[in-house]
Amino acid sequence: MITITAIVPTYHRPKDLTRCLEALKGQTRPANEVLIVVRDTDSDTWTLLKEFNYEPLRLRTVTVKVPGVVAALNVALHEAKGDVITVTDDDAAPHSDWFERIEKYYLSDDHIGAVGGRDWVYWQNKLLDDGTSEVVGQIQWFGRVVGKHHIGVGKAREVDVLKGVNMSFRRSAIASIGFDQRMRGTGAQVHFEMALCLALKRAGWKIVYDPEITVDHYPALRFDEDKRDRLNETAIRNSVHNETLVLLEHLSPIRRIVFIIWAILVGTQEALGLVQWLRFLPSEGSLAGKKWFASLRGRWQGWLTWQASQNQSPAKMMVSQ
Question: Which domain CATH number covers 182?
C-alpha cells in the first residue's frame, strides 16, 4: 500500500475551492491527507475553511506568505507525508476515480516518477470543444512545447510534461528537486510544471499521461498579471522567460541552438517570433507588435537567468541526447 497526499493551492476563490473539496470528498479511494495551501492575507478562503464541513476529508491547512504557486507547492511539499503527492487547482473537480487510477500506476512500476491526465475544460459553463489529439505533453526536437492535455485521447503513454491542474508525483522522486523557485510570476507562474517534469526525466524517471485520469476544469479569474482573457506584457514576458529557461536546461547543445533560432525567427502563438508577428500583424496591428516585443524580452531574460544558473553551479546540468 502507498499513502497519498493531495495538495490544492488556493487564492481568493472560495466558491471554486468548495467545488474542488466536494469532489475530493467523493473519491472511491480517499486521500490519506489533503493539504490546502492558503495565503496569509486571503481572508475569503480563511472564512470558508472555518465554516466548511471537512468530513470525511483528512484536511490540514498550510499558510504561505510568499505570492506564487511555486512557493505554495514547496511549502506543502515540505509538510506532505504521503508516498504520492497529487496536485490540482482550486478551480478543478477531480473525477471520483482520480486517486484510484493514479495509485495503480505507482504500484505497478517503481520507475514511474509522475502521473497525470486530462482536464475537461469548461469555459463559461460549457464544455470546450477543441478537438482531440494523440500527441500530448511533448517537447519537439527543436524545442516547441506541445501541451494539449485537455484534449488527449488514446492509450496511456510516457510524455515529457504534465499539466499543473492534473498531476501527481512520487515523493521520493521530487523531494530533492522541489518546484523551481526561478519561475517568474506572482500567481500562476506558467511552465512551473515543465521545470519539474523535465528535471525528473533528466533523473531517469518515467512520466505517464493517461487520458482516463480526469478532472473537470473551470478556468477562473486569476489575481496576478496573467488575466487569461486580456493582454498583459508582463505575463507574456514571465511565461516566455520560464519556458526559455527550462528548455535551455533540458536541450542538448545542438538542440539549444536550433531552439533559439526557431524561437526568434518563428515562435508560437503564445510566444511570437518574426514569422508569427507577420502572421498576426494584419489582424492585430500594434497589438501584435507588443506581443512580439514582450516575447523577445522574455527570451532574452530567460537566457540571462539560464546563464546565471550555469555560472553558479560548478557541475553542468545533464542534458537530453
Answer: 3.90.550.10
